Amino acid sequence: MRPLISLESLAKRYPKAGGGETTIFENLWLSVNKGEFVCIIGHSGCGKTTVLNSLAGLERPSEGVIIVDGKEITAPGLDRAMIFQGHALLPWKTVMGNVAFAVSSRWPKASREEVERKSQAVIDLVGLTGSERKRPAELSGGMKQRVGIARALSIEPKIMLMDEPFSALDALTRGSLQDEVRRICRETGQTVVMITHDVDEAMYLADKVVLMTNGPAAMVAEIVENPLPPDRDRTGMHKQPDYYALRNHLIDFLVTGSRTFRDHIPPKYDPMKPPLVRPGATSPGTMQREDALQAH
Amino acid sequence: MTTSLNARSAAISALIAIAVLLVWHLATQSTASGPALDPEYAKLVGATATTGKSAMPGPLDVGAKLIEHLSHPFYDKGPNDKGIGIQIGWSILRVAMGYGLAVLAAIPLGFLIGMSPVMSRALNPFIQLLKPVSPLAWMPLALYTIKDSSKSAIFVIFICSIWPMLINTAFGVASVRKEWLNVARTLEVGALRRAFSVILPTAAPTIVTGMRISIGIAWLVIVAAEMLVGGTGIGYFVWNEWNNLSITNVIIAILVIGVVGMALDQALARVAQAVTFPE
Fold first, then answer.
1. Which residues of A touch B198 (CB under 8 A)?
2. Is residue B75 a part of any domain in this protein?
3. ipTM, 2 dp
4. Does residue A195 fall inside a structural domain?
5. What residues does A277 pair with on adjacent strands?
6. What whole-number distance in Å separates Cα of residue A181 and Cα of residue A160?
7. What does the pLDDT look like over A214-256, one tens digit per residue?
8. What gap in Å lies between CA A194 and CA A182, rounded to an integer?
9. Max alpha carbon distance in chain A (Å)?
10. Where residue B173 sits, what CATH number does that domain have?
């Protein structure tokens, strides 16, 4: 099956202050299948935002191509919807106005009633019914981000791109929004690429987690398949048998692997096909760790 | 608490007004009768010399004259005797035309400067050079080239009100947040729709602030300009009444200028309130 998104030999370089260039990342390959929820994890400066912005078309990579649904991406477009970290709502428009702005951009010929009807449907979907006439300043942080999600969903995009969408929210609000996003994505089969710092968020939401090493010259170390069952819930997730294997694997990578990977590149490592791993009871890595624990 | 604050401040304002009027009234009263004079001579030198009456009118004189003016604001008895309503109407018309032209020029030009760093830098020296020039310095040049005193006054209003609007529009447009522009880009919004539905609402509060500064300057300048060009207008009225030595009418003109200026400012303050959005 042809993947929906394919990043091929992507590189981003910035001119250095004293001449020369800094390579943020190069020879980066990544593909995402339709309906997949992919999280990109890595430390600040590894270029994950650049990858996402390039996918959105807001930035141009220095090298390489991005192909979405068989077409090369060179500019922003309505087939991809971005959810911004700072929600980026237009403060002079109401909730309805913000969503309707997106809807009427997607369907310029739609009648006023149709725009309103479509907008209302997504506002209901994200649970903001009754707040249509409020302005962003009257909403809490979580509600603002719900509007951001509604705006992104309203244009029925092929891909949703999220740049740390919940990082500015408190833990409780973040949890309920994660539930909401997971429900919506599972109902609609939405393809999502999301950047996060939060390991638990990635474990709960992602089907695959892309691990990026530290920049500059960052690379995709591996792609971790989520072994948790698809019907997992946020509160009971830690009782799943593979939970700790996955969590330890991700945290180990963030603590040490992201730093040391470059010096210990596995012999069979191929940047075009980063290794796909599935931590869990059957993974030899965790077996060893459990054996070691039992030995104590 | 707020109502009591309003009530207290209003009471103090009223007290100040009463005190000022009282002092004014006492200061301009006739003091003493002067030496007895030949009635013919006394008529010649006037009340100031004979009875000690100040040439400065008291508040009651001004009040009586004001009522007279307001009851017949639009009479026209030849070029040097027109109602105050007609005079102020001319001034408002000139300001409206000069200011209107300035709005039409400054906002599109400000958009251009705000959106293009190249144009911003290219035009900056001209703006910096022309902005501090007193608008009245343009008057001889305007009279020479336009050859019409009324149109020259309009030009002077135009040239003095363009700068604050131009600078504020450019600043407002240039400081539109990048993320809002990114929203428009990801939604493939066209240039015209982006200008009207993203950039204009963001810059509107700054633009209206510029417009408010401009109308204030325009209203200051029109009085001086009309003193120079003459003919009609409240500025000409002030100068004419000074030549008539009618201090009463000069004071009335000052009051009327103040009231109209305040009304113009408040009107734009309302507009500013309407376009301001909470973040």
1. 90
2. no
3. 0.84
4. yes
5. A224
6. 11
7. 878 888 988 999 989 888 888 888 888 888 999 999 999 999 8
8. 12
9. 70
10. 1.10.3720.10
Q: How far apart are CA B251 and CA B231, in angstroms?
A: 20
CB contact under 8 A, B277 and A92: yes
- Tokens representing residue A186 in the block: 């599972």
Chain B closest CA to A76's CA: distance in Å? Answer: 5
Q: Which residue range(s) make up the domain with B127? A: 84-275
Joined together, the tokens standing for residue B158 give 């135009």
pTM: 0.83
**Which whole number is the average pLDDT over B188-204?**
93
Q: How many domains does chain B have?
A: 1
Cβ distance of A102 and B188 shorter than 8 Å: no
Tell me the two tokens of residue A162: 């999220």
Amino acid (one-letter) located at B163? W
Partners of B188 on chain A (C-beta within 8 Å) are 76-78, 105
CB B52 within 8 A of CB B32: yes
- What CA–CA distance (Å, rounded) separates B181 from B187? 10
If you ran DSSP here, which 8-state letter would residue A257 be given? I
Do the Cβ atoms of A91 and B277 come within 8 Å? yes
CATH number of the domain bearing residue A23: 3.40.50.300
DSSP A95-123: HHHHHHHHHHHH-TT--HHHHHHHHHHHH
Which H or E element spans position B84? helix B84-115
Residue B135 backbone phi and psi in degrees, to 5? -60, -30
